[in-house]
Structures are given as C-alpha cells and as structure tokens.
Design brief:
This protein is an alpha/beta fold. It has ten helices and 15 strands. The chain has two domains: 133 residues, serine acetyltransferase, domain 1 (Orthogonal Bundle), CATH 1.10.3130; 113 residues, Hexapeptide repeat proteins (UDP N-Acetylglucosamine Acyltransferase, domain 1). Helix content is 42%, strand content 14%. This is Serine acetyltransferase.
C-alpha cells in the first residue's frame, strides 16, 4: 500500500522548525527539558502551545490556568487568523531582531512577542462582546509583561516589538502589517476627548524607542519615527520624522524600514548634501 502523503494544508513549516529547535535545545541544555517539553513538544500545534503559554503566564489567584487555556483554545479554534498572525509575528521577530537566533526564543523568552499574542486573545474576546474578560487579559498583560494594549485596538500581522518595556497602545489605535517598534513607544491620545482619538500607523512603519505618537493622526506607510520623537501631526508616507514636536527630516532611507531596522535618520544636511 502506497504511503499517504500529508496534505499541503496540514504542513506547518514554522511549527516544525520550532519543534526541531526544541529538541536541539534539550540536547544542549538538559535542565530546560521540562520547560521545553511542557511549553512546546507536548503540543500538537503552535496554537495549542501558545494557548498553554498564555494561560501559564497570565494565571493568577483571580483566574485559573484552566479557564484561561480554555478561553485561548476557543479563540484559536474560532478565528484561524489569530494563529496565522502569530506565525507572521514569529517570523518577523526572527528576521528583524539580531538577538533572536531561533524561532523558539520569542515563544519562550521574549515578552514583546508573548504580549502581542495575549493581546490577540483579548482582542478576540472584545470582538465577541466579552469586554470584561478582555479587560482582565489587558490588565494581566500589563502586570506581567509591562505592555499595555487596549483590547479594542486593531493590530495587523508581522508585528515586532523589541524589548517591549512600557509599550502603550490606546483603544482606537490602528497598527498596520509589518510594523516594528521598540520599547517605551506610546500610541496615545492628547487629552480627555472621547471617540476616535488614537494614531493610525501604516504598513511597514518603524517606530524608534521612546517615541510618542499622539492623537487621531496618520503615519504613512513605510515611514520612520526617530527615537524620542513626539509626533502630533500626520506623517507622509516613506519619510523620516524626528524631534519634539516631530517634523520631516528626510526620506525613509529604504523601501522597508520596519524590516531593515535602520534607525539612522536622514537629516536635512544629509538629504541636501550640504
């Protein structure tokens, strides 16, 4: 009888690579065997592994691991896009973070990746009308990872948040695909106004450490925001802005700044050759 080949839909090269790396990690450091088995090798899919990590990290005396894991499993089963976004995020971190050498690192050790995956569960809860449970997830992500993302915010796939400490993303913020940001970034409002009050970040944008983007403004795709900048007005696509308040100081410098992760901005002197 001929051997049955797996269907293409059943193939998951990202998950297979994670499992291969997990086996190698145990060979290199046997003391991590329990962690690696329980977090990765014990699970048949990436979604199940992420649900386990979500429940393990966010459980507390107020909410058990079992409830959180059942909630995450339900989210992944109900909306396959959550798992696909996780894969895109994982590849993004591996490609863009020079400190990431294996796919398993973000799942086990990087709080930026883990916080974004937990946000995705919270966002699913929010979209189901389960707002209080979504708020609980937001609270625990803030307490555990130091990352505060409102569950109603809309975030695309291929997101890389490096270091991730003190990230704040407000309720009506929108973050496109393939966006990279560093620690202490704020996508916030400008006061007590209600309604649509947070930034809209285009695809492929790079946001430097400590940058504050405030108000219902738009940051054009493939732009760069220099570290420490305070952005209060719209940013044209494919440009670099810097300063307090931020102003355009040159072109973006490359076609995909969020992928190249080049934080050197093009100042007026460099742009004009003077």
């Amino acid at each position: 009888m001929a051997e049955t080949k797996p269907k293409i839909a059943q193939l998951d090269p990202v998950w297979e690579r994670v499992r291969e790396e997990a086996l190698e990690a145990i060979r290199a450091e046997p003391l991590l065997g329990g962690l690696v088995h329980s977090s990765l090798l014990h699970h048949p899919t990436l979604e199940r592994a992420l649900a386990y990590r979500f429940s393990l990290k966010l459980a507390s005396g107020e909410m058990s691991e079992q409830i959180l894991r059942e909630t995450a499993d339900e989210a992944y089963a109900s909306d396959p896009e959550i798992g696909q976004a996780a894969r895109a995020d994982l590849v993004a971190v591996f490609d863009r973070d020079p400190a990431c050498h294996r796919y398993l690192q973000p799942i086990l050790f990087f709080k930026g990746f883990q916080a974004v995956q937990a946000y995705r569960i919270g966002n699913w809860l929010w979209r189901q009308g389960r707002h209080d449970m979504a708020y609980f997830v937001q609270m625990r992500v803030s307490e555990v990872f130091g990352v505060d993302i409102h569950p109603a915010a809309r975030i695309g796939r291929g997101i890389m948040i490096d270091h991730a400490h003190s990230i704040v993303i407000g309720e009506t913020a929108v973050v496109g695909d393939n966006v990279s940001m560093l620690h202490s970034v704020t996508l916030g409002g400008t006061g007590k106004e209600d309604g649509d009050r947070h930034p809209k970040i285009g695809n492929g944008v790079l946001i430097g450490a400590g940058a504050k983007v405030l108000g219902n403004i738009r940051v054009g795709e493939c732009s760069r925001i220099a570290a420490g900048s305070v952005v209060l007005t719209d940013v044209p696509r494919c440009t670099t802005v810097a300063g307090i308040p931020a102003r355009v100081v040159g072109e973006a410098g490359c076609s995909q700044p969020s992928v190249s992760m080049d934080h050197l901005h093009i100042g007026e002197d460099r742009a004009t050759g003077r």
